[in-house]
Amino acid sequence: MKYEKEIKTAFKVSIPVMMGYAVLGFAFGLLLVSFDYPWYLAPIMSLFIYAGALQFVAINFFNAKAGFVDIAIATWFINIRQSFYGLSLLKRFKKTGKLKPYLIFGLTDETYALLTTIKDDEQLKKRWYYFFLTAFNQSYWFVGCTLGAIIGSNIKFNTAGLEFSLTALFVVLCIEQYKNLQNAMPFIVGALASLFSLIFIPSDKMLIVSIVIALILMFTFRRKIEQ
Question: Which family is this protein grouped under (predicted)?
Fold first, then answer.
């Protein structure tokens, strides 16, 4: 096989991601069909959106009948962190040629973590190793979402509380961010902005308004937060 070493290495490195993506993807598939959406929407979203947290949020957008502008703005804010990931990988992806668009599309938190924490084998053909690693990770998510949707469509599950899986995901990410920053102010600002929007703003605009308020407060008290 032409790229046997790259494939084997990428698969071995991606095994921890498989454990997480398969389970969380399965939960997404179950949740999607529990809202009476067709099962095939899960694999379509996994192929063309491929954004774990955003796919969970998308279900709420669908239910709230949110407008395209609201969805676009929320999507940008939710995934803006990956723009900074991309900047740090410009040099690494420089010689990936035609594979670069897919590598950019498939860059998730977990893929970025693998690319930046595991030292590359100098004997590997780097661009193909990056490609197979990214493709393996997306395939785990695709299979998990698809199986969850198909099984959920044919076997009735009690999915009460399953929608909390997204909240749990963000709580874990929030805790990890706090451990890295050791600064409670950004989290207090976010909580206050969200609470205000939850009370005074209609539910379909709540997310956008809370993000805007949080940004305004962050810039207003920037010096205090940094100190």
Answer: Belongs to the AzlC family.
